[in-house]
Amino acid sequence: MSATPRTALTIAGSDSGGGAGIQADLRTFFACGVHGMTAITAVTVQNSLGVQGFAEIDAETVTAQIKAVAGDMGVHAAKTGMLATAEIIGAVAKTLDEVHIGRDADVPFVLDPVAASMHGDALLREEALEAIRTELFPRASLVTPNLDEVRLLTGLLVTDAESQRAAANALLEFGPQWVLVKGGHMYDDPRCVDLLSDGVQYVELDGPRHETEHTHGGGDTLASAITASLAKGLGVPDAVAAGKRFIERAVAESYPLGAGIGPVSPFWRLAPETP
Ligand code: PXL
Fold first, then answer.
1. Which of 48, 141, 188, 213 is deepest in the core (most CB within 10 A)?
2. Which residues contact ligand 1 via a Cβ below 6 A?
């Protein structure tokens, strides 16, 4: 028998292609040495060419999944990804309070405000964006939007360090403890600079930009690596720094799969020579 590892819960959608969503979260949790648990919100039908459609899970079943694992197994940190509908978002917000997960409880909660896939396919019904802002932002220990999500959530265009800081301030108005404005989609910047802030500290995390189109699941993998570090007891700035190191390697070692966009890879953390 081994010691029980720390646990992390992902509340997100399934990606049949295995590169993003629940599948990315679980393999990242595994690579980071925490026990992953899931509350599935939607089942997408997709491959490397895009999302062909999705079926959402009813809100009661999402709630029941969260309560089942939180009550019995315990959750050291949680994250959300694809939430699909305003009804699911409302149910998740209420349930997180009931099981004491979130910025004002002892258990950190990372909100990855997923709105669309890399191909631009919607993963969130339009009216649900407002629910993310009002119901989930105030409960989040950390929110991790990319620049497209920043524009949808605030109307602000991020093109440089100054507008990135303005976006962080605007997002903090919605009530999260910390925000990480990811700079990866500023494609003319030769570096990948993310800005982390709680309104007092403004920390720039500078990393290399890897020239690859195979970045499917990158946002999910970063948020999951951060969640895993939070589950192990790191504070938000240290967990984000660890997550940034993790995603840099995962992007550097991404691979082609199918005719479209291949996934980032958390495999680098595992023994490569296993037969
Ligand atoms: O990477 C965002 C994302 C999250 N969740 C699911 C997805 C995607 C992107 O395609 O399919 C289920």
1. 141
2. 12-13, 15, 20-21, 44, 46, 51, 81-82, 114, 117, 123, 217, 219-220
Domain assignment present for residue 275? The answer is no
Give CA separation, 232 vs 76, 118, 226, 238, in Å.
8, 30, 10, 11
pLDDT of residue 18: 97
Q: What is the number of the ligand 1 atom nearest to the C-alpha of 119?
A: 10
Q: For 121-154, what is each residue's pLDDT tens digit?
A: 889 887 899 999 999 999 999 999 999 999 999 9
Please report whether residue 155 resides in a domain. Answer: yes
Supply the mean pLDDT for the chain. 95
Q: Distances in Å between the alpha carbon of 145 and those of 34, 48, 105, 195?
A: 24, 22, 22, 11
Task: Confirm if 112 and 41 have CB atoms less than 8 A apart.
Answer: no
